[in-house]
Amino acid sequence: MSVDPKNMTHHVAMRDGLPAVIRPTLLEESQQDWQAHPRFAGKARFFMNIHRQLLNGADWVAATTETLLDVPDDDLVDQIDTLQLGQRAAHLLQFAHGHHEIEDHGYFPQFIRLYPNLEQAMTLLDGDHQVLDETLGGIETSLATTLQTPNRDTLAGLQRNAAVLRKIMHRHITDEEEVIIPIFLRHG
User: Fold this and answer.
1) What pTM was estimated for this model as a whole?
2) Domain boundaries in the chain?
3) DSSP calls for 134-157
4) Mind giving me the DSSP string for 62-113?
5) In 10 A of CB 60, how many CB atoms?
6) Buried-most residue among 7, 27, 54, 93 (CB within 10 A)?
7) Mean pLDDT of 74-97
């Protein structure tokens, strides 16, 4: 059985973990042992730190836009500026796109060459990146609209997109780390 990331069963927004067909292909290092591994301080920790930054950014944009929905209309522009919503959200967008480019064109092909049995996992993660890119594009559009015409409706659209991003970013990063961190521990 192959994994199709466009199949709703495997779609990053719908799944609650890695598909069962992928689990037997994973390397054996247990997540609870990662930090004790002698190679953890290398690329494994580096990538996990990057992932935490992405998660923190997605969480911040979602929480901030939700909070801004409660701000009185007269104060909305000032609060958007004070919180630096435009700058911080734009940074997240750029950072996430850049990180996925590095993984898709650098790491994932190398990992498949090292571990051909992980090809389905890499296909799934690549599919996640496509969904994330579409979601990031939706945030970029709704952010521009919100910054150009700040009001409750435009902000609500941005908040909906940010909530989706937060959900799929957490699912994707959890699953991605299960696949790639053991590789970094072996080749660190």
Assistant:
1) 0.92
2) 45-187
3) HHHHHHHHHHHHHHHS-SHHHHHH
4) HHHHHHHTTS-GGGHHHHHHHTTHHHHHHHHHHHHHHHHHHIIIIIHHHHHH
5) 17
6) 54
7) 95
